[in-house]
Amino acid sequence: MRNRVRAERTQQGLSQAELATALGVSRQTVISIENGRYLPSLPLAFRIARFFNLTVDNMFDPDDEGVGQ
After folding, report:
1. Domain count, the chain
2. pTM to 2 decimals?
């Protein structure tokens, strides 16, 4: 799943640690989400999107892999 977390974070001048604190997660979680190694839970995805004033579907873009399977 592709996402805009890194782009939005850097655009706002936030460090990974600052974003992690604001979201109530570890810096490692933010790193993993940004690198696409971790898919956030639905509640966390909503928190991230709300933090950046975006909708979940604008923040996260599912890859075509696995669709319909």
Report:
1. 1
2. 0.86
